[in-house]
Amino acid sequence: MSHITFYEKPGCANNARQKVQLLQSGHRLTVLNLLTESWTADQLRPFFGSRPVADWFNKASPRIKSGEIDPTAMDEDQALAAMLEDPLLIRRPLLQDGNIRTAGFDSSIVQLWLGQDDGKDRESCIRPSAQPAQQA
Predict the structure, then answer these.
(1) Distances (CA, A) of 66 to 43, 89, 119, 126
(2) Structure pTM?
(3) Catalytic residue numbers, as ranges
(4) For 25-39, how does the pLDDT look when each residue is reduced to its tens digit (9 = 90+)?
């Protein structure tokens, strides 16, 4: 099994659930606070791989939800600069196992670590306020 560095937002219920899934799959975790890390662009960039820039962002970030920031209008340099200024913009968790890095909990790497690919959504927020409104 892997020793995964798990960069989280402390107190995030989703990150707590994701950590449990990794631990139950037999992995060891080093858990670090995503928001207080002293990131540089060179350190942060590898977590996003070949994903489009808009997919680097935490879509639940208040600045994105309010429309203040439009991830689809940014290039790589602009996105990294914005994330270094406001780490709440970073898609989480950030995960690292040696030289393997990924952002979010929906990648094929995470599925491999979990030993499953059952189509379940392991990334979306499970808070009731984040669920879509029921239509009558």
Answers:
(1) 28, 12, 30, 20
(2) 0.81
(3) 12
(4) 899 999 999 999 999
